[in-house]
């Protein structure tokens, strides 16, 4: 036995030693009731000291840099990050340069390629838990991974590890140039590097690297679809796609080879040399570049890449020419009123001046003559409007038209494409609940009592959004409980309803070649078949009739120049 000061010194030494050698197998436990102990995880790429959550039984490792932007080429490939010593993983507020979606202010820095890991107390190296990775949406122009929107509390209570991460956006992530230094789609390649980091290191946090689900909403879901089709590495085995697929909108446009020249000129630097312009832009303060990108009206573009040796090539063919070979489990779906907020919030003058049929049709098709185009537009208008004339007091036809072309038909065609490629463990959902936690309605000041579930409204029922913490109506909490149980069941088992429970008293059937069942998620769960059947049947017939008018960038095989069928 030790006595006096000697005993105290030994005790303190032991406590400090334990704190430094803390591993995830004990990181989530409280040692001797001393809550001030913080978890430390040792990995091959560094040691990370996290925080104990105050709102649940889990630990948080925030703002871990998985990569860094090359200061000599900020538009180029990311550089993997390694550490010496212990990294204090306590800050999840980083954002990549952007115009953020709430106050529309320019924010962010290039020190942003960070990820956040939320680990339930039950996780350990000896008891690894399944992993859910969320890719945020935002049109590839805005968004961030922090708890302000993606609070983990609702998910981690189901014994899954939850992860979010940032990736470059706008001109930094999607400058489309056919050069070795800027080979395109860098934002997607940031995502790949994050997924690679997770696959290689999550076991040290108590994660099961054989059960990784990648989930996304909107542009995040489009990103997931890209990874299913193009990523050859086995970095995940399940995917969740919420309201977004590659066919959701025309993503591939003719790149603007003069984009750097235009941006430089907007910033008062005139040159005719692309490399000179890039060198200048590389030195520009990021907020100034984001402002210049906004003021020039340049749009975010995803591009088919020219292949370069010794470079990470990603999208090397048009997606329509790729046969999906990834063997993954799929949970896919949409909200029942995807277009409600987008159309409702349009100014009356803009709404009445827009020709929705032309906008949606011209996006993907080019007709040989005006007469044929007139006939097709007339057919579409007769179906959606009947004898009505579109006007601001009756926006429902335009809501349906926009949602059908931009969400429902592309997603259901993707379901068929997945089935045709051999993916046979797939579940289709339709979220239809509208309550106080609807994300987009709340953000855009649209009453939740109006319309159905609009685009991205479901986010408030999966994530503990920081400013919605007090919205605890019984019906809203019921939907939170149902959504998170369904989603985490899929993460854990590849089946959202492995057995009926009081909360989910049914079994959700898989999609098959001959059947298209779906689960409608509301205060009452309902199984249905062939969602939006009448409208989708109309669009299927329409597309079959006009497929040969598809624009080259959508329907031409880049290898052979031949047209291909994509609507079947």
- Report the strand count: 18
Structural class: alpha/beta
User: Ranges with pLDDT <50 over ≥5 residues?
Assistant: 9-35, 552-568
Q: Enter the CATH topology name.
A: Rossmann fold
Rg value: 25 Å
Q: Tell me the number of structural domains.
A: 1
Annotation field: number of helices: 19
Report the CATH architecture.
3-Layer(aba) Sandwich
The residue fraction in helices comes out at 25-40%
Oligomer: single chain
Cα distance spanning the termini? 80 Å
Arrangement of strands in the largest sheet: 3-4-10-12-11-13-14-15-16-17-18
**The named CATH superfamily:** Alpha/Beta hydrolase fold, catalytic domain
Describe this entry's structure for a reader:
- By secondary structure, the chain is α/β, with parallel strands linked by helices.
- It has a single domain (4-256, 298-555), classed as Alpha/Beta hydrolase fold, catalytic domain (Rossmann fold, 3-Layer(aba) Sandwich), CATH 3.40.50.
- 34% of the residues lie in helices and 15% in strands.
- It has 19 helices and 18 strands.
- The strands form four sheets. The protein has an eleven-stranded mixed sheet, with helices on both faces.
- Helix 7 (219-230) links the parallel strand 13 and strand 14 (238-242).
- 44% of the residues are buried.
In short:
With 568 residues, the protein is an alpha/beta fold. Helix content is 34%, strand content 15%. The chain is built from 19 helices and 18 strands.
Secondary structure blueprint with pairings:
Blueprint: H1 4-20, H2 24-27, E1 40-43, E2 46-49, E3 51-52, E4 58-65, E5 67-68, E6 79-80, E7 86-88, E8 98-99, E9 106-107, E10 114-120, E11 129-135, H3 147-150, H4 153-156, E12 161-165, H5 170-174, H6 186-201, E13 207-217, H7 219-230, E14 238-242, H8 259-266, H9 274-283, H10 286-296, E15 329-335, H11 340-344, H12 348-353, H13 356-364, H14 370-385, H15 396-420, E16 426-431, H16 439-443, H17 474-493, E17 517-521, E18 526-529, H18 533-546, H19 552-555
């Amino acid at each position: 036995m030790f006595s006096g000061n000697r005993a105290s010194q030994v005790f303190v030494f032991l406590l400090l030693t334990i704190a430094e050698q803390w591993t995830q197998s004990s990181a989530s436990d409280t040692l001797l009731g001393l809550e001030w102990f913080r978890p430390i995880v040792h990995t091959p790429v560094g040691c990370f000291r996290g925080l104990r959550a105050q709102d649940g039984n889990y630990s948080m490792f925030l703002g871990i840099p998985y990569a860094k932007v090359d200061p000599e080429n900020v538009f180029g490939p990311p550089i993997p990050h390694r550490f010496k010593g212990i990294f204090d993983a306590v800050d999840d507020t980083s954002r990549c340069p952007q115009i953020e979606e709430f106050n529309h202010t320019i924010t962010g820095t290039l020190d942003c390629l960070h990820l956040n890991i939320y680990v339930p107390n039950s996780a350990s190296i000896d008891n690894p838990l399944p992993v859910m990775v969320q890719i945020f949406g935002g049109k590839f122009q805005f968004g961030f991974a922090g708890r302000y929107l993606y609070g983990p509390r609702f998910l981690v209570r189901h014994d899954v590890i939850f992860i979010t991460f940032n990736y470059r956006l706008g001109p930094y992530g999607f400058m489309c140039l056919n050069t070795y230094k800027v080979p395109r789609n860098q934002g997607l390649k940031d995502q790949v590097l994050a997924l690679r980091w997770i696959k290689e290191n999550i076991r040290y946090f108590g994660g099961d690297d054989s059960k990784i689900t990648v989930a996304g909403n909107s542009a995040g879901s489009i990103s997931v679809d890209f990874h299913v089709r193009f990523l050859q590495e086995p970095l995940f085995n399940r995917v969740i796609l919420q309201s977004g697929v590659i066919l959701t909108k025309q993503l591939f446009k003719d790149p603007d080879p003069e984009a750097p020249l235009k941006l430089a000129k907007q910033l008062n630097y005139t040159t005719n040399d692309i490399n000179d312009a890039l060198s200048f832009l590389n030195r520009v303060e990021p907020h100034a570049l984001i402002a210049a990108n906004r003021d020039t009206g340049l749009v975010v573009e995803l591009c088919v890449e020219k292949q370069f040796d010794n470079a990470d090539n990603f999208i090397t063919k048009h997606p329509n020419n790729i046969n999906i070979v990834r063997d993954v489990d799929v949970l896919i779906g949409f909200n029942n009123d995807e277009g409600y907020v987008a159309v409702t919030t349009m100014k009356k003058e803009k709404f009445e001046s827009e020709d929705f049929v032309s906008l949606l049709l011209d996006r993907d098709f080019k007709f040989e003559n005006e007469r044929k185009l007139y006939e097709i537009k007339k057919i579409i208008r007769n179906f959606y409007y009947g004898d009505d004339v579109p006007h601001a007091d009756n926006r429902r036809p335009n809501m349906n038209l926009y949602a059908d072309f931009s969400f429902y038909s592309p997603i259901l065609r993707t379901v068929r494409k997945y089935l045709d490629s051999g993916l046979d463990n797939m579940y289709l959902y339709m979220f239809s609940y509208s309550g106080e936690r609807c994300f987009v309605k709340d953000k855009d000041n649209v009453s939740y009592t109006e319309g159905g579930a609009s685009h991205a409204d479901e986010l408030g029922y999966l994530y503990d959004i920081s400013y919605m913490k007090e919205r605890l109506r019984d019906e809203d909490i019921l939907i939170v409980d149902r959504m998170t149980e369904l989603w985490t069941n899929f993460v854990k088992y590849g089946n959202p309803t492995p057995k009926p429970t009081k909360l989910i008293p049914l079994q959700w059937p898989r999609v098959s070649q001959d059947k298209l069942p779906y689960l409608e998620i509301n205060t009452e769960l309902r199984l249905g078949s062939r969602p939006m059947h009448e409208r989708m049947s109309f669009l299927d017939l329409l597309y079959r009739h006009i497929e040969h008018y598809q624009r080259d960038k959508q329907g031409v095989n880049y290898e052979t120049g031949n047209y291909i069928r994509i609507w079947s």
